[in-house]
Design goal:
mainly alpha; globular; 426 residues
């Protein structure tokens, strides 16, 4: 009983939110926290632009060159995938090195305990809010009848327009990936002489699959970048065909897996390469790739005259971006050329609490954004003299308030569910 009470102690759990274990990878905390903040910005600005009757999303996309990163910030999910692949592969490799096998039952059960309790709580909150609303049209848009797919982590199999909690597709992809990946990893290690080569082959397959999906779907093959911002029906089609499927998104997870394999099984060779001329060249190239893909205005109408480029971008951008993130993570972990600057930014202890809260923040963040966007837009329309904000000012303020509320809600879930379960798993 004392162990149970200790696991659920709010004071103890709150203190643990600020105590970073020595075994942590500090740079990954920074990556994770910053990615969550970027998702807050992306969804706030996108939802505001879609909800405000006097705003067209394409106009906000094309408003200025500096804001291009906002509309590309959905790549933050790819960063989450890279981090997840790295950490899970590290766990699996240590278990294989120790026991020459993977304890699948234990692995899947621990994954269930890590993700499902908090997720199911938020699903319950979503269901309660849906049933409590008196607006039948608003309730029908929530697609409550399809929440069963979220519970089973197959919600990405449902067309985008029919999904409940349609921001949780990434959880489904992760769970589906980790049903298969431990089996593949163990088979590669046990039955091949070069398991890392097998992972690289799968990486190549991920590029090929994305390309084939794109060129065999006429609407996506002939798309213009701006179609995603201008055409709601096409956006739903693109989301269902290319955006939220395991077979089109597993490349980012594999980038993290491959990075972990180098780090845990080939560290001396990795360190030599990172400190070589080619290694330093790759550092700057990776940094450049990240900046390029965050600032490239692919959704603007200015890209409409380049359909071949759009196909190539859709094929290569996410995996290249993810590979660059994974490489820079290794640079920081091995203290290579750029690591001093990158670690100064991303390994700061400031990021650790946000990193710990990032999962619950991701689950919750849409709720405060939707509520505050509706309140903000209504207030600006009804009292224009009092709330005389530009759209950019309004979006920024809403994002700030939504982030604060999301953190508050995430702290509650962390204290009553996430941390107690992690304490009992030990």
């Amino acid at each position: 009983m004392s162990t149970l009470l200790s696991a659920f102690s709010p004071v103890r759990n709150f203190k643990q939110l600020f105590v970073r274990p020595e075994s942590n990878f500090p740079v990954l905390d920074g990556f994770r926290a910053l990615s969550m903040l970027m998702i807050m910005v992306f969804h706030t600005f996108s939802i505001y632009s879609l909800y405000h009757p006097q705003v067209e999303l394409i106009d906000m996309v094309e408003a200025s060159t500096w804001s291009a990163w906002i509309w590309n910030a959905d790549k933050s999910v790819d960063i989450f995938f890279v981090i997840s692949g790295f950490l899970i592969t590290g766990i699996l490799l240590r278990q294989i090195d120790r026991d020459q096998t993977i304890h699948f039952g234990n692995f899947y059960f621990r994954r269930f305990l890590r993700l499902s309790p908090a997720y199911w709580l938020v699903i319950g909150l979503y269901l309660w809010m849906g049933l409590a609303t008196a607006d039948l049209d608003a309730r029908s848009q929530l697609k409550l009848e399809n929440l069963w797919a979220n519970v089973l982590y197959v919600n990405n199999f449902i067309p985008y327009q029919d999904q409940a909690m349609n921001w949780t597709w990434s959880l489904a992809i992760e769970e589906q990936f980790y049903l298969l990946y431990p089996l593949i990893l163990l088979a590669l290690i046990k039955y091949t002489q070069k398991p890392l080569t097998g992972l690289w082959v799968l990486m190549g397959v991920s590029f090929l699959i994305r390309f084939l999906v794109i060129v065999t779907d006429e609407r996506i093959r002939t798309m213009s970048g701006s179609d995603l911002a201008l055409d709601e029906a096409f956006h739903a089609h693109h989301f269902s065909v290319l955006y939220d499927n395991l077979y089109t998104r597993f490349g980012a997870l594999l980038c993290g897996c491959i990075a972990a394999f180098y780090y845990f099984h080939h560290e001396p060779a990795l360190r030599r390469f990172l400190n070589s001329g080619w290694g330093k060249t790759f550092e700057f190239a990776s940094f450049g790739i990240i900046i390029l893909f965050l600032w490239l205005p692919v959704l603007s109408r200015g890209m409409n005259d380049h359909p071949a480029f759009t196909v190539m971008y859709q094929t290569f951008s996410r995996n290249l971006f993810s590979g660059a993130v994974a490489y820079l993570a290794l640079v920081c972990l091995e203290k290579s050329y750029l690591s001093r600057v990158l670690n100064l930014i991303f390994s700061n202890r400031f990021w650790y609490p946000l990193a710990q809260l990032s999962y619950s923040m991701y689950l919750l963040h849409i709720f405060p954004i939707l509520i505050l966007v509706q309140l903000g837009v209504n207030a600006m329309q009804q009292y224009p003299e009092r709330y005389d904000y530009t759209h950019w000012e309004a979006m920024s303020l809403i994002c700030l308030y939504a982030t604060g509320l999301t953190i508050l809600g995430a702290v509650i879930i962390y204290l009553i569910i996430e941390r107690p379960i992690m304490n009992m798993r030990k």
